[in-house]
Structure formats: structure tokens, C-alpha cells
UniProtKB/TrEMBL annotation:
It is found in: Membrane. This is Peptidase S49 domain-containing protein. InterPro entries: ClpP/crotonase-like_dom_sf, Pept_S49_pIV, Pept_S49_SppA, Peptidase_S49, S49_SppA_67K_type_N, S49_SppA_C. Residues 123-276, 372-522 form the Peptidase S49 domain. GO terms for molecular function: serine-type peptidase activity. The chain crosses the membrane at residues 9-29. PANTHER family: PEPTIDASE S49 DOMAIN-CONTAINING PROTEIN, PROTEASE 4. Keywords: Hydrolase, Membrane, Protease, Serine protease, Transmembrane, Transmembrane helix. One of its GO terms (biological process) is signal peptide processing. The active site is at K196, S388. The lineage of its organism: Bacteria, Pseudomonadati, Pseudomonadota, Alphaproteobacteria, Holosporales. Its main location: membrane. Belongs to the peptidase S49 family.
Length: 578
């Protein structure tokens, strides 16, 4: 009797669970479909203007659907690579006559602005127009980078009573030494070498002279690039633009007089301005409403794409990294899967990371080197930052591309360990320990390193630094002495890195892709066959894990999935056609 009741209840709850999941799936698919449509877009015509808006939403290199939640998040986050691809497609689309670019904030990094601006510059070189609009260039903030992006346009408009805050560049950091001293927290720190400044915020009250000199050099390189491009875009000489920068912010009328702006209008008036030049029959098409012209035949040879856009964690799966496509072990398997596909002739590895754990960097480094050694070229595309561990993993690649304003280098290592023992004693908290092994407690946060442990720490830093410089020397085909001269922990701009041999070419993701297309013998009449190899959990396994096998089989048949959902990683990898 009880067994029958249990089975009956089980059947009822299974049916309810099945119905709930089906409703969730149908609702999600309807959401995706509706999110891809834009009722505000005109239909495409032979006289279309593509409308783009940047600077308001957060922007990532690429939106990987790592979970159900992140797939929903995709529609609230912009993808730089997809945005640049859209501009590239519009450049060769005879129906698109112009781009209307609205810059509504300052969320783009300098390197992101550069990568998008480069694509817009090529669009303009194709004989097409660009109209830029902003409510202000820096609304109580620094608008130098956003104005740099706008300076590619034929016309720059701003809303009345705004300001053009091309005030230059600054870099600041907080320092905690006095704060830690106040609480009797001490920090033991070491580095290789003197310009590896990451530990200074714990041990000093300001930058060291060496670090400050390095940071000033980087900012000067980046700002000089912005000044050159912005001045050229507005038809000004650099000296005049530098003067305007040093006397900024400029109020709206001042900006008109100094030729920084073309007119003061409201956003709803931009269309009227465009119609004067392109005619009243112009169609204004949004990013979602744009449909590219027919695709060309696809190349048989494949180009793999692997993306890293996160700080590098230690190797090894944890609850936080087991479904993370950027985790070291996941990236290692991504390279492995690409190697197993004989049609893959080259890989573009997009590196956008400030660095991270030594073990994680070593795992990814090995994956890159193994791939190159087995005859598949790896082309590095550096994003906004590819420094420290980010450069270490890039060193053995076939070729390295960076934007002019990418932050890279930082070849070195640093460590810091706090001692909170005395601080806790001040509040009545004491500590005791039992240990076996002379150095078993060396990483305890309640005591300093003893002499033997401190010696071990120094030895490990020496070994890693020697390995780091040797790896860079081998990968970049430089002498170790040459590498050490640029490996004091300095950060370099992409331009500086090219000058000192750490980078091969200045260019963004699509410049690296063009190099990969040459290697893969993709004809000019073909579209490249591009496959993203990041291990992606599409979100459905979490839902289906709640159901039995019969329920899973029914849903799989209904929506046309033939693979095992518990293993939907690279077997259902995202495909990107450009």
C-alpha cells in the first residue's frame, strides 16, 4: 500500500517537474527570440543608416553562453568582437551608407575604444559617413577616451550645455600601509623586480620612484596615440590639440569655436541632420535589426578561436571553476579539442587578463606551447590587458598582436603575506597550533616567516623569475639578457611592447584573424570557417539534471537535441561566422 502511494506521488511530482521545465525552456526560447527582434528598427533598404550605441552598457570581448543566467545577461552586455564584426560587415554592404554612433557613457577601455575606432576608420575609408553624438564627453568625468572614439566621425554632435572633458589621463592607486599599521597588521612582501608594483599598496604610502616612472611612461605612450588620432580626425595639428587638452574641460560653445564639435543638437535631431545629407527616404536600422547580405561559401579549413577574459585562477576544478570556460583546465581541454580536429589549421587565442595564479598560468602556457609544437600555429590577440601571467602564457605563440593601447608586459613575480596575529590579540583573540614539519606553518597569517621559510620564499621567486625570463626569451627569440632589460616588472603599452620585441604587430582581434586566414589558406572569395573551442555549458544540463531519463528523452526529441546533455561542452560549441 505504502509502496503504491510512494510510486503515485513520485509520478505526480515527476509530471509536475517535467511540466515546469518544459515551460521554462519554452519561455526562455521565446525570450531569446523576442530579444533578437527590435521594433524600433526600420526595415533594411538600399539607403540605410546603421545605428550603434556604446558607452552605456558594460562591454566584454565576447559573450560566451556559460550558463542559462549568462545567456539572459547577454542582452544586457555588449560584445566588442561582435560589434566590430558588425561594422566590418556594414563596410562592404552596399545598402549601408552611414553609421550613426551614439556615445552615451565611458564604459569602454582605451584599448576597446581603439579596436572599435579602427573598424570605424576603415568604414569611413570605404567612402561612407559616420555621425557621432554624445550627451557630453565626460559628464563630471574624464571624456578623453570617448572623444577619441568620436573623432573618427565626419560630424560630431553634442547635446547643449554639455562639456568636452578631454582632460588627459591620470592613474591613481590606494595605499594601505598606514591603515594596516593602525590595526597592527604587518605584511611581508618580495618581488622580482623593482618595478613590479603590485605589492606597494600594502607596504608603502605611495609609488616607488621606479614604478612611478614606468607608469608615467605608459600613460605618455597611450595619451600620445590618442592625441595623434584625435587631432588628425578633427583636422587639427597635434600642438593645437594638446593645448586644448591642457585647457579642458570646454563648455559647449567653446567646443564649437575650437572645432572640437560641429553642432549642438539634441539626440532626436540627429536623424534630421542625416536626412539633409542622405535624403528623406533613409532607413535607420538598429544593431539587432540589421541583417547582413548573403554569405559567401565557407572555407573547408577551420580557424579555432579560444577566449580568456578573466583573472587566472589556480589550476584544479572547484565548485566555482568546474563550469568556467576560462578556467585553466577548461582552456587546456579547449586547445586539446582543437588539436584533435584535423581541419583546424590555426588558432586565434584572445588573451584579456591582468594575470593571476602561477599554476593556472603554467597550465595554459603548456596548452599553447603543445599546440604550436604539434604544428598548429597560435596567434595571440591581446585585449585591454595581457600582463604578467597573461604575457607568460602568450610567449610561446606563433605571433602576438596587441592594440596600441593594450597594457602588457609586467614580466616578474611578487608575493605578499599579512600577519594578523597581533591585530587579533588586540581584540582578545589568540591563536595556537600543532604542526609536524619545520615549515608546515609558514603560510599561516598569524606569524611572520621564520628565517628558513623566508629563504625558501626567496628561492622560489628566483626560480620562477628565471623561468619566466627564459620562457620569454625562447618564445620571442631574444637573448635572456635582452629580456631581463625589459623584465623588471614594467608595464608596457602595446606600442612600447612592439618596440622592445614583446609584440609582433599592432592590431586587434580581426587583424589576428586575418593572419590566421592566411595560414589556413582561406580564399578572398570564402568566409572563414571559425569555431569557438571554449568548453561551454549551455545551461540546460542544470535543468535536465532534475529529471529522469524518460523525461529527458522526450524533451531531447521534442527540441532536436541528439547529444548527451550531461556532456554538452565542446560537442555543442558555439560557432562564430565572420
Amino acid at each position: 500500500m505504502f509502496k503504491f502511494i510512494r510510486r503515485a506521488l513520485g509520478l505526480i511530482f515527476s509530471t509536475i517537474g517535467f511540466a515546469v521545465v518544459v515551460i521554462l525552456i519554452i519561455g526562455y526560447m521565446k525570450f531569446v527570440r523576442s530579444a533578437q527582434e527590435d521594433p524600433d528598427s526600420d526595415p533594411m533598404t538600399d539607403n540605410s543608416v546603421l545605428q550603434l550605441e556604446v558607452g552605456g552598457l558594460p562591454i566584454k570581448d565576447f559573450n560566451l553562453p556559460t550558463s542559462l543566467l549568462s545567456q539572459l545577461q547577454k542582452y544586457r552586455t555588449q560584445s566588442l568582437i561582435e560589434l566590430v564584426e558588425l561594422v566590418n560587415e556594414a563596410r562592404t554592404d552596399s545598402r549601408v551608407k552611414a553609421i550613426s554612433l551614439s556615445i552615451v557613457g565611458n564604459t569602454l577601455s582605451a584599448a576597446q575604444a581603439e579596436e572599435l575606432r579602427t573598424a570605424l576608420e576603415e568604414f569611413r575609408k570605404a567612402g561612407k559617413k559616420i555621425y557621432a553624438f554624445a550627451y557630453a564627453f565626460g559628464d563630471n568625468s574624464n571624456g578623453t577616451s570617448s572623444y577619441y572614439l568620436a573623432s573618427v566621425a565626419d560630424k560630431i554632435y553634442m547635446q547643449p550645455h554639455g562639456a568636452v572633458s578631454i582632460i588627459g589621463a591620470s592613474l591613481e592607486s590606494f595605499f594601505l600601509k598606514d591603515f594596516l599599521d593602525e590595526f597592527d597588521i604587518t605584511v611581508q612582501a618580495a618581488r622580482r623586480n623593482e618595478q613590479k608594483g603590485v605589492i606597494d599598496r600594502f607596504t608603502r604610502t605611495d609609488f616607488t620612484p621606479e614604478v612611478k616612472e614606468n607608469l608615467y611612461s605608459v600613460i605618455s605612450s597611450i595619451l600620445s596615440h590618442i592625441q595623434d588620432a584625435s587631432a588628425k580626425g578633427r583636422g587639427l595639428d597635434k600642438e593645437t590639440y594638446v593645448t586644448l587638452m591642457n585647457t579642458a574641460p570646454h563648455q559647449d560653445r567653446q567646443a564649437i569655436q575650437t572645432k572640437l564639435l560641429d553642432d549642438l543638437i539634441y539626440r532626436d535631431q540627429v536623424r534630421d541632420k542625416i536626412k539633409v545629407e542622405l535624403g528623406n527616404n533613409v532607413a535607420f536600422v538598429t544593431e539587432k535589426g540589421y541583417s547582413p547580405q548573403g554569405k559567401r561559401p565557407q572555407s573547408k579549413n577551420k580557424i579555432g578561436v579560444i577566449l580568456l577574459e578573466a583573472e587566472v585562477p589556480p589550476s584544479g576544478s572547484t565548485a566555482l571553476t568546474m563550469n568556467d570556460p576560462y578556467a585553466p583546465e577548461s582552456l587546456d581541454k579547449s586547445f586539446e579539442m582543437a588539436l584533435k580536429d584535423p581541419a583546424v589549421k590555426a588558432i586565434v587565442f584572445r588573451v584579456n587578463t591582468p594575470g593571476g595564479a602561477v599554476s593556472g598560468a603554467e597550465t595554459i602556457y603548456r596548452a599553447v606551447k603543445r599546440t604550436v609544437d604539434k604544428g598548429v600555429p597560435v596567434i595571440i590577440s591581446m585585449g585591454s590587458v595581457a600582463a604578467s601571467a597573461g604575457y607568460y602564457m602568450a610567449a610561446p605563440a606563433t605571433k602576438i598582436y596587441a592594440n596600441a593601447m593594450t597594457l602588457t608586459g609586467s614580466i616578474g613575480i611578487a608575493m605578499a603575506k599579512p600577519n594578523i596575529g597581533k591585530a587579533t590579540e588586540n581584540y582578545g583573540i589568540t591563536w595556537d597550533r600543532v604542526q609536524i614539519g619545520d615549515n608546515a606553518g609558514m603560510w599561516s597569517m598569524t606569524q611572520d616567516f621564520n628565517e628558513a621559510a623566508w629563504k625558501k620564499v626567496q628561492e622560489s621567486l628566483d626560480i620562477f623569475y628565471a623561468n619566466f625570463t627564459q620562457t620569454v626569451a625562447e618564445g620571442r627569440k631574444l637573448s635572456v639578457d635582452n629580456v631581463k632589460s625589459i623584465a623588471g616588472g614594467q608595464v608596457w603599452s602595446g606600442l612600447q611592447a612592439k618596440e622592445n620585441g614583446l609584440v609582433d604587430e599592432i592590431g586587434g582581434f580581426f587583424a589576428a584573424m586575418d593572419e590566421a586566414k592566411k595560414i589556413a589558406n582561406v580564399a578572398d572569395t570564402e568566409d572563414p570557417n571559425i569555431v569557438i573551442f571554449n568548453r561551454v555549458n549551455v545551461g540546460l544540463p542544470l535543468l535536465f539534471s532534475l529529471l529522469g531519463e524518460e523525461s529527458i528523452a522526450i524533451i531531447k526529441q521534442a527540441i532536436g537535441i541528439n547529444t548527451e546533455l550531461s556532456h554538452t561542452t565542446a560537442t555543442t560549441r558555439v560557432r562564430l561566422v565572420m
